[in-house]
Amino acid sequence: MPVLRNHPLASLTTFGLPSSANFFCPCTSVEQVKEALSLVRSEGLPLTVLGGGSNVLLTGDLDGLVLHNRLEGIEIVEENGKEVWVKVGAGVPWHALVVETLKRGWYGLENLSLIPGSVGASPMQNIGAYGIELEARFHALDAIEVHTGQPRSFSHSECEFGYRESIFKKELKGAYVITHVTFRLSRRPELRLDYGAIREELDRAGVHDPGPQDVSNAVIRIRKSKLPDPSEVGNAGSFFKNPVLDAEQFSALQSAHPDVPHYPAPSGTKVAAGWLIDRAGWKGHHRGTHGIHDRQALVLVHHGGASGADLLALAQDVQQDVASKFGVALEREVNVLPLG
Ligand code: FAD
Ligand code: EPU
Predict the structure, then answer these.
(1) Ligand that comes closest to the CA of residue 116
(2) How far apart are alpha carbons 5 and 64 in whole angstroms?
(3) Which residue in 99, 146, 176, 319 sits closest to 88, CA to CA?
(4) What b-and-e string marks burial along 43-75, b requiring 16 or more CB atoms within 10 Å of the CB?
(5) Residue 20 CA to its chain's centroid (Å)
(6) What is the 93 CA–ligand 2 centroid distance (Å)?
(7) Is 80 exceeded by the pLDDT of residue 340?
(8) Which of 239, 289, 311, 327 places its Cα 20 to 30 Å from the Cα of 59?
(9) Which residue(s) pair with 133 in the sheet?
């Protein structure tokens, strides 16, 4: 297993912020993951797992070992006439998986087209977009426990998925390295067109009898029209979660702002954080090296030359302003490293 010293990380993350790893281990197999974890234990090193780096904000150098997950492979583990169970290496890029499944006629991931990052990170926050969350197609995952090096499988219920949540962001934060994820996909298209913007986009493109590839194409076009391309401007997608308010909080917000976009959620009402930040006047805000995207106020952008601390200070200003104007607390969606 290769171990590199003082390895730069900026180009391995979509924010492109300066940082380096004291020890850097690119791992292409489960054996290499186990070896890296043995080193972590024997040397008492802090561990950071990195996938595509599209949901992290690096605020400084990482002291211990960075395990870069590069496990490849897409294989069928079970199938019948209706469904197929596909086991995928954690290092496979998410969108490459979506493209491959569409090509092979395995359906169910099309609404999640063009989300950056790796397959291994997808269960971490139960990635979601355009009316579907990962958990709808998740079957199980394989992981290695950091403190013991022992393998363990997690079923759907054991992952405790929620909106941008899983057990790996709560009780088991930092406890496991995910090495493979198994998905249950359908051989017959089961389209999810309930997210309004998809139907509008299909109509605009003149598609009246859509298939999964049309849905994927529509989602890609919508995403490109709103979200900045990380190869052009540093960002990590939505910086905050959409807050879920209880009945009392929501009713107070809605009576003051009847046009606030909102959606039912299992434990209350979800409101659009992007709308709150936009209404508070932050959309397109510029601080030279960094700022807020001019087409989606939920996205913080790095133009070059900023530090992680600069981005974090901007995020805190936004949180304070939204709290004082709307009485709503915004929670970060992006993972800040090193943990502090
Ligand atoms: P990283 O950023 O590398 O890591 C994220 C976290 O997971 C870190 O805490 C890391 O330690 C941990 N981690 C990573 N891999 C593993 C592993 N194998 N085992 C254990 N822990 C691990 N997200 C959505 O849900 N929906 C969207 O629509 C969406 N749109 C986006 C658009 C843009 C332009 C960008 C830049 C990001 C967007 N995101 C979206 C966020 C991001 O793409 C996802 O969260 C993605 O799953 C992160 O994957 P990653 O491999 O880049 O993870
Ligand atoms: N809005 C504004 N101004 C803005 C941004 C949004 O008024 O600057 C309004 C929109 O007009 C719309 C509402 O807010 O009425 C919601 O906006 P949008 O449809 O763009 O979605 P979002 O809630 O901001 C969420 C996810 C995205 C995901 C999209 C599509 C979260 C935190 N974000 O964004 O995920 O792609 O829905 O499903 O849930 C990510 O996690 O990184 C991410 C990009």
Answers:
(1) 1
(2) 10
(3) 99
(4) eebebbbbbbbbbbbbbeebebbbbbbbbeebe
(5) 22
(6) 23
(7) no
(8) 327
(9) 128
